[in-house]
Amino acid sequence: MVQAGRKYVFDFDSTLTRVEALDVLAEITLNGNSNKEEIIREIQEITNLGIDGDISFTESLERRIKLLNAHKSDLEVLVDQLRDKISRSIESNKEFFEAYSDDIYVISCGFKEFIDPIVKEYNIPEHRVYANTFKFDEDGKIIGFDEANVLATHNGKIACLKNLDLEGEVQVIGDGYSDYVMREAGIADKFFAYTENVHREKAAKNADYITPNLDEFLFVNKLPRKISYPKNRIKILLLENVHSDAFENLSKEGFSVELLKSSLPEEELIEKVKGVHVLGIRSKTQVTQKVLDAADKLMAVGAFCIGTTQIDLEACKKKGVVVFNAPYSNTRSVVELAIGEIIMLMRSIFPRSTEIHGGQWNKTAANSKEVRGKNLGIVGYGNIGKQLSVLAEAIGMRVYYYDVADQLALGNAIKCNTLEDLLNVSDVVTLHIDDSKTNKNFIGEREINQMKDGAMLVNLSRGFIVDIEALVKALKSGKIAGAAIDVFPEEPGSNGDFHTELQGLQNVILTPHIGGSTEEAQRDIADFVPNKIMDYINSGNTVDAVNFPNIRLPKQNTSHRFLHIHKNVPGIMAKINKVLARYDMNITGQYLSTDNEVGYVISDLDKEYNKEVIKELKKIDNTIKFRVLY
Ligand SMILES: NC(=O)c1ccc[n+]([C@@H]2O[C@H](COP(=O)([O-])OP(=O)(O)OC[C@H]3O[C@@H](n4cnc5c(N)ncnc54)[C@H](O)[C@@H]3O)[C@@H](O)[C@H]2O)c1
Ligand SMILES: O=C(O)CC[C@@H](O)C(=O)O
């Protein structure tokens, strides 16, 4: 009879380890065998049939051992390899195995020869490991297994657990149906289907609880764990078809991620955003006050693009929602498109192309000019404007630029003191100003009239910057000889019908807001933004946040980290420290960053603390958000 209290019965293969040990053994023993792949496939099929209960376990074992053709010395290699294949969340929660060592059992249909040395490192002694044992011949070759062991028989785990006669609640944690049967037979009280490495439908559908990793198991059982909140509980909603790498990166980290192709209109987003912790969008989704009011769990918004005016940044800040974007990932893509379009416009390539598509051969040099020696006027000399300046000079253009901010000229570019100066001199005007709403109708009838007759206009920044009616008029009159427009005042949320007065006009290139839509840019964004989000969620870093005090935190080692976001009113820091002092907490590091509206205080503290302190900190007046990391 074993002592009372809750008992934890773990499966080994694909639960404590990421793999099935006999598959790994097969890789070792069949090395150099020309039929290796085929035999391994056969072994895996037999393993699955056994796990799912479709063939008897004894049969599965016999057939696999025959195919394996293994030797005692192979087991040493196997153990070495298994050490590197421990399930990630098992590896990170060693503390649990130490603290609960007396209550943890392994019941496996694998073999003690490789299980014992692995689980020993997790404080599980041999005598609490129930598994099969191999039979060897005198040369050390594996020739079979101990058939008298109940675990070598069909549903042997039931008999094994029954024989143990454990007292207290028994929880079984495993990936297979053969683990579930202990619960079905009424010997275990709960079955947790463990899906970190493999999701077996037959086990999952019968489980009391599906646990995607040990963090979740420990969280629901209120047991000591490495991380305060299981990542699978953090819901991320990605809209507007962001690159699938973002989905991969965030899922790999353990978050629950949903990816939708289009943006959502406000009413739908209001419904969908409930319970979401991180929202990922591009330029179409409007994150309004109403959306934020409905977002009960929202911690961060990731703009998978440069522009952020689609997001109510102030409202986000007031709610303690941190916003990140990707300020440089698509810069080069926009610049390359601008160069291409400038050349296409100057050569009247699109009219020629349209004619020939319509069956008309029109070989002519009329309205076809080289870009070499022409004046390019760049409005907005920021990241895109500057890079364009360098490339345009490289193809022989004379660059003029205008910016409201004091920007240093690159190369031989000439700074214009007024927009009018730039418009007067440019053969092509290209717009790269930011998406501030104050830039609405920045180029209207007056500005167009200030341009040279027959000049061209390129807009790859934001649609509302150009007065479309005035542009259409100027194109029709010939005042402007061509335009390339990628962005529009009203753009649809998803692909489909679209109408603009610019359609059908001569020498006008129209594109559906694809300036930054290249594989390279989207892949880079899908790396950059998720990294920022993960950094914020995992450690509290707000470096490069667009609406929040930026803070770069040192790596959190052994301490607990309290993250406190509050309205920036006097005295909050003192109040936080008063509470911490009252609870005798030893601060190992403290960081504060503020702007006019919010303050962000991070306190690193010694491990142990009275949980009441959290309630007290949350109660401090003007607290917006509070969370604990460990
Ligand atoms: N078409 C696309 O797919 C696409 C892709 C990326 C970026 N963009 C847009 O391109 C624009 C530029 O991006 P960026 O990364 O170079 O931004 P940036 O912030 O680095 O540069 C913008 C520059 O414009 C200047 N500016 C702002 N208002 C001005 C005004 N009224 N007059 C003169 N200068 C003004 C700013 O001082 C700044 O130097 C943004 O609107 C962005 O949203 C579009
Ligand atoms: O990809 C998008 O939706 C927007 C691209 C661009 O306008 C940006 O702001 O980066």
Break the fold down into its secondary structure elements and pairings.
Blueprint: E1 7-10, H1 12-16, H2 21-29, H3 36-51, H4 57-68, H5 72-83, H6 88-91, H7 94-99, E2 104-111, H8 112-120, E3 129-132, E4 134-136, E5 142-145, H9 156-164, E6 170-174, H10 177-184, E7 190-194, H11 201-204, E8 209-211, H12 214-220, E9 235-238, H13 244-252, E10 256-259, H14 266-272, E11 278-281, H15 289-294, E12 300-303, H16 313-318, E13 322-324, H17 331-346, H18 349-357, E14 375-379, H19 383-394, E15 398-402, E16 414-415, H20 419-425, E17 428-431, H21 445-449, E18 455-459, H22 468-477, E19 480-485, E20 508-510, H23 519-539, E21 560-567, H24 572-582, E22 587-594, E23 598-605, H25 612-619, E24 623-629
The chain binds nicotinamide-adenine-dinucleotide and (2R)-2-hydroxypentanedioic acid (2HG).
(2R)-2-hydroxypentanedioic acid binds next to loops.
Pathway: Amino-acid biosynthesis; L-serine biosynthesis; L-serine from 3-phospho-D-glycerate: step 1/3
GO molecular function: (S)-2-hydroxyglutarate dehydrogenase activity; NAD binding; phosphoglycerate dehydrogenase activity
Function: Catalyzes the reversible oxidation of 3-phospho-D-glycerate to 3-phosphonooxypyruvate, the first step of the phosphorylated L-serine biosynthesis pathway. Also catalyzes the reversible oxidation of 2-hydroxyglutarate to 2-oxoglutarate.
